[in-house]
Amino acid sequence: RQGAMGTVYLGIDPKINRQVAIKTLAYQQIDAKELTQVKKRFFREAEAAGNLSHPNIVTIYDVGEEADLAFFAMEFLAGKDLSYHCSLKKRLPVAQVIKIILQIASALEYAHQQGVVHRDIKPANIILLPEGQTKVTDFGIARITTNSKTETGIILGTPNYMSPEQVAGKKVDGRSDLFSLGVVMYELLSGVKPFQGESITTLMYNISNSNYRPLQKNCRKLPPLCYTIVDKLLQKS
Prior knowledge:
This protein is an alpha+beta fold. Helix content is 34%, strand content 19%. The protein has helices spanning 35-50, 94-113, 164-167, 174-190, 200-209, 215-218, 224-233; strands at 2-3, 6-13, 18-26, 60-65, 69-75, 80-81, 116-117, 126-128, 134-136, 143-144. The strands form three sheets. A five-stranded antiparallel sheet has the order 1-2-3-5-4, covered by helices on one side. A three-stranded antiparallel sheet has the order 6-8-9, covered by helices on one side. Strands 7-10 form a two-stranded antiparallel sheet. Helix 2 runs antiparallel to helix 4. It starts with a strand and ends with a helix.
């Protein structure tokens, strides 16, 4: 699978005969001016996820670099990402959504305790496995607070799921991930995103300044706790 940050292959670990996903970054495919930054982001993903051991976070097995190629091997996840369930017709049962949000919250609590802020929590970065377990993936823009300076003035993330402080290019901490989790929860329950805009500029303004349509108006029969949690997660301050 070809992605924005490298190519992912299905492989076999011959030592224990298990399937693995191998993410590679071919240096010759990257503009020379951008190579240093792209490599930094690639290895940051391996470092951030590789230092975490949690049932709801993708496991990194190995990382390395050849002359013109960087790679890391991670567990192979046989499932769909949550974006598949974000439309009205493919929504999951409410009880399952609550279980999924609990698992993601548990993963984020653990990551934050380890000094890792994900910064790109969105449905496409959360894999739902056939047995119902979820895995948080793609730590490519994670910030490792223990060994890197906080980046300010650099907007990183996926626009619809950014927190107000990300939109403003401010320093972020774990609360930014929780805001993004609120957007994911709102979308899984309702099939629509709480913040939208015809342009990136309008979208970012709405995230920072506008109120979202209350979840109650889109979904009237949810357990009251769902409304409370979404409202708390989506606090701008």
